[in-house]
Amino acid sequence: MLPKLAGTAPCTAQEHAALAFAARLAETPTALDAAFMAEMRCHFTDPELVELGLITGAFLMLGRLHLAFGVADMPPETHRVLHGLGENEEGKR
Questions:
Q1: Is residue 88 domain-resident?
Q2: Is residue 5 part of a domain?
Q3: Between 16 and 71, residue with greater pLDDT
Q4: If both were cysteines, with which of 4, 8, 48, 63 could 44 make a disulfide (CB 3.0 to 4.6 Å apart)?
Q5: pLDDT tens readout for residues 13-63
Q6: pTM of the prediction?
Q7: Nearest to 55 by CA among 41, 63, 72, 12
Q8: What is residue 32's predicted lDDT score, i.e. its pLDDT?
């Protein structure tokens, strides 16, 4: 496995920003507010942000379809972000 994917190599500031963007898009899209996007523009151009959003969205949708159609047997933690959408810390909607 590649060191960065295995978590053994440090990520760059731009990589951390991309991960933060993807996490917010997946977990709390409303958190992609003006202040956060201004921070993202310190790391990415507008065309890069559009591409990041499209790619992230595509993989989120593939994951949801994968889960919905039972494409492969996967442990529940693989899709943990999907199970928490719309819930508070106690797991209540």
A1: no
A2: no
A3: 16
A4: 48
A5: 999 999 999 999 988 999 999 999 999 999 999 999 999 999 999 998 988
A6: 0.69
A7: 63
A8: 94
Q: What are the tokens at 41?
A: 């523009």
**Whole-number Å distance between alpha carbons of 82 and 22:** 13
pLDDT at 1: 41
Q: Which two structure tokens, joined as six digits, stand for 90?
A: 């106690």
What 37-45 contacts at long range (C-beta under 8 Å, 24+ apart), as own/partner pairs, is 42/17, 43/13, 43/14, 43/17, 43/18, 44/14, 44/17, 44/18
In a domain, 60, yes or no: yes
Range of the domain at 37: 11-83
Q: Answer whether residue 93 is part of any domain.
A: no
Tokens representing residue 69 in the block: 């159609």
* CB half-sphere exposure, 23, CA atoms < 13 A: 7
Residue 83 contacts by C-beta under 8 Å, 6 or more apart in sequence?
76
pLDDT of 35: 96
